Amino acid sequence: MLHRVRQTARYVGSAGADDRHATETARILRQLGADEELVVAGILHDAAKPVNTLLWHRVAGVLLGITPRVRARLARGESTFARYLDHARRGAEMAREDGASERVVRLIARHHSRPATEDERLLARADREALP
Ligand SMILES: [Fe+2]
Ligand SMILES: [Fe+2]
After folding, report:
1. Where are the domains positioned within the chain?
2. How far is the CA of 43 from the centre of ligand 2 (A)?
3. Which of 54, 92, 99, 102 could make a disulfide contact with 108, Cβ separation 3.0–4.6 Å?
């Protein structure tokens, strides 16, 4: 847990980190032999993260991983923190509206849930390794 908070703090420190995270996730997925659809999910998985997400949002988001019910309650509404906590669901909606396949939509929606398929495991691994 503390490791993830430190990792998150380091990640937020650099400019353009979100774009780099998206392209790096996609690059790792390609390296792992993922097909194009999975690579697309890798590029889009965090697209709904608010651009004005602050460090404390991310740190609190990591810490809230241990209390899903509190997390769910805080994820309602339109505040930056709510949109950050809810970015997987919102990102999946955006992808669906943009015409992404059901597989891509589902991968984005579930990318902060415990991986249940080989696709989800690959995306979770690339997502993790794409953090500096
Ligand atoms: Fe995410
Ligand atoms: Fe991510």
Report:
1. 2-129
2. 9
3. 92
